[in-house]
Specification:
By secondary structure, the protein is of the alpha/beta class. The protein has one domain: Aldolase class I (TIM Barrel), CATH 3.20.20. Helices cover 46% and strands 10% of the residues. It contains 13 helices and 8 strands. Strand 2, helix 6 and strand 3 form a beta-alpha-beta unit. Helix 7 runs parallel beside helix 9 and helix 9 packs across helix 10. The longest helix has 18 residues. The chain is globular, with a radius of gyration of 19 Å. The chain starts with 14 loop residues before the first helix and ends in a 12-residue tail after the last helix.
Amino acid sequence: MDHTLPRNPGMPLALDLVEAVQANTSAIERRAASLFPRRSVKKQWQAAWLLKAITLIDLTTLSGDDTPSNVIRLCAKARRPVRADLLEALGVSHLPIQTAAVCVYHGLVKTAVGALDGSGVPVAAVSTGFPAGLTPLPQRLAEIRASVEDGAREIDIVVTRSHVLRHEWQALYDEIAACREACGEAHMKTILATGELGTLRNVARASWVAMMAGSDFIKTSTGKEPINATLEFGLVMVRAIRAYEELTGYKIGFKPAGGIRTAKDSLAWLVLMKEELGDRWLEPDLFRFGASALLSDIERQLEMFTTGRYSAHHHHPMA
């Protein structure tokens, strides 16, 4: 993550602003449905957009059977996410194409940091009792500090969903602010678990509280919920980001995660960011994909562009 942008310091909780936030569900659904069909990205332009998408991926493994060896392999993939022959065929072998980060559980942070040493690719750790966030707050804060001490430069936290569902905005604000303090210099992505918040209005309000409490990024999902990243959730969150910048002058990052598996999915999200927030939010310091299978499908699309044929997944190194 490029840390040249002024970091969001947060602001006092403005309950009147939070309570006034609205979300027109039918209008949001219409906008989401029309976003991608109206935009056609083909041929060399599509290849360029897909290469851009690779540089925005937080390459992730969050499985119960994660081992040091598969994390080391994932880090090797993050360093060289596309086969050398494909890059040469595309005429971009001179470009420093890497993923934006590698995201792992706390217990594998040291392994990932060692495997990525010298690459410039940071390690992001999921924390605070991921994915449910129901462990006691002191334990969640201790986990954040431990991950930072082990070398994580980014921390993805989860919130207590009941605070949102019960409209306990002060409790939500205090929890996120405590996590931000525990992160120190590490940048914090706040996962709202949008699929468990009930309404789009709740998503909008939670987005505002998270930004007020000092979040560097707001993120849709853990990837473990029944409903994860959708364009409707994305629209609500990026519009909150735009309004927060208008109010405070600070740019907040956005990370959709969960269910983003195909190259076509990534193009839809890139279109959303470009149209709603502009080109500045097409850089890794302000936009990330949380994904694991996405990279493999993008590689297959790039090979289709160069050879005219789709390859099998096993033709590409681990993604």
